[in-house]
Design brief:
Blueprint: E1 6-11, E2 18-24, H1 29-33, H2 41-52, E3 58-64, H3 71-77
Antiparallel strand pairs: 1-2, 1-3
Length: about 80
């Protein structure tokens, strides 16, 4: 079973450029929330622009984080 703790990136579906790196302790639930309501105004605007073009960000799992590892440190690393 994969860990629910992960570091993820939101990437442009066209260029693959990373626009945001975040952490989640709830598996893919947290990354998916950005697609409908991000806490970041910048990400909200970017997602909205992509939707107008019938696209959405790609979510890439960068790393699964074990329970004994410092998830904040791993997020800063990425």
């Amino acid at each position: 079973m994969k860990s629910e703790r992960l570091i993820y990136a939101l990437c442009c579906p066209v260029t693959d450029e990373v626009h945001y790196v975040g952490k989640s302790t709830s598996g893919m639930m947290r990354p998916m929330q950005h697609l409908s309501n991000s806490h970041s105004d910048k990400i909200k605007a970017w997602v909205s622009d992509l939707k107008e073009l019938n696209h959405s960000p790609k979510i890439k799992v960068l790393e699964y984080v074990l329970t004994f590892e410092d998830i904040d440190a791993r997020e800063r690393y990425w």
